[in-house]
Design brief:
It contains 5 helices and 4 strands. It has about 130 residues and is of the alpha+beta class. A 4-stranded mixed β-sheet has the order 1-4-2-3.
């Protein structure tokens, strides 16, 4: 469950039916960067470590997964394994826990096209994702 003091921007998508969208607003981008910076001090895997573990090239865009309280850990883990190249079960478990406890996690870095593909697969089951 995310920290009650953490207020995340709603996913963009017009009518609310789309969970996967690019953040176009500079204020949304700054807010998300501030949230990520404040969570960097945690003892969990930092986004840089995600890239080092083979879940993206670290260049271009990033995929963020948000907590929605409507999926089980196993559903999130299964979808991460399906969507993210190079994902391992232990890392998927750690990222699912980070999403649950911090409200969001960076789960992939790579080209805009590859990030869009990862986000699309994650969103197939209704997971809330955003590509930056």
């Amino acid at each position: 469950m995310p920290d009650a003091s953490l207020s995340l921007p709603p996913p963009l998508g017009g009518d609310g039916s789309k969970h996967n969208a690019r953040l176009e607003s500079k204020s949304h981008r700054r807010f998300l960067e501030a949230v990520l910076a404040s969570s960097a001090s945690s003892q969990q895997t930092a986004p840089e470590e995600v890239a080092e573990l083979g879940t993206g090239s670290g260049e271009g865009s990033k995929v963020f997964l948000f907590n929605c309280e409507c999926h089980t850990f196993e559903e999130v883990i299964t979808q991460l394994l399906k969507a993210v190249p190079g994902m391992t079960r232990p890392l998927a478990e750690e990222l699912a826990w980070r999403v649950h406890t911090q409200g969001l996690a960076e789960v992939y870095r790579g080209s805009a096209a590859e990030c869009d593909r990862v986000a699309k697969v994650l969103g197939e089951t209704g997971l809330i994702v955003q590509v930056l």
